[in-house]
Amino acid sequence: MRASVQFQLQITYAEPVRGLNQILRLTPRGFDSQEIRDWRVDVQPDATLRRGEDAFGNVVHACSHDGPLDSVTIAAEGVVETHDAAGVVRGLAEKFPLDVFLRDAPATHAGEELALFARDALAGESDPLGRMHLLMAAQHKSLAFAPGETESPRPANEVFAARAGSARELAQVFVAAARALGVPARFVSGFYLGCEDVGEAAAHHAWAEVFVDPIGWIGFDPALGFCPRDEHLRIAMGPDYFAAAPRRAVCLACGREEKRVALSVDAGRQASWQIQQ
Length: 277
Known about the structure:
Elements: E1 2-27, E2 34-44, E3 50-53, E4 59-82, E5 88-89, H1 112-121, H2 128-142, E6 144-145, H3 156-162, E7 164-165, H4 167-180, E8 185-192, E9 205-212, E10 216-220, E11 232-238, H5 241-244, E12 247-252, E13 257-267
Parallel strand pairs: 6-7
Antiparallel strand pairs: 1-4, 1-12, 1-13, 2-4, 3-4, 5-10, 8-9, 8-11, 9-10
Helix pairs in contact: 1-4, 2-4, 3-4
């Protein structure tokens, strides 16, 4: 798929803020099945964007604004070519040993009930890849996909108990379940460039990647129930949502934020759409 992608996030404050610092992870990296033809990130009011990499190799932009500030607009746009690789991720430099993606964390901790669910989902399957497909199918059947984002996703155990969650929350549940089975797993944030009826998932999408020997890292999308395809634009990854969040911000005298998100995709086999939060 060759697509022109335009993302915009508008943030307004109930009361003007005195200052704002932001870290943005909105720039995709290229690998074997994802080519970045052109991409740029912009913020308004105008500010100097300092580009770098975080610990996990994600492209980050940092910027600061002096107040008073009533609103800020963040835009990311470019042209990408994606290819269906059945979820397999190849051509990315890996900076950490697999043990890093087995470590427990509050957001991706699997309690006793979730760990039992993961074991039962395998149904005696011995093939490593088959086990992960069974886990995804069981989670997709048992936990409803409920689009709609909060400031940060709920912990995996809380989402599992509720039996429903957003794409980001379901991705963290899958990460927690895989790690409970001794499988290295990580969280991935991105955009979904597929059908219009996916709705709010498009701009707030997320999935998981697990390491399956000898293939390597493979993506699993428990929200949609299949491995990432060419409609998935991979942007950032980390052990959990917080390490791969598209935006993290700290403001001085910050009041309530109201967010409006728009995503448009121009591709040969799909229409453009806008979504709002």
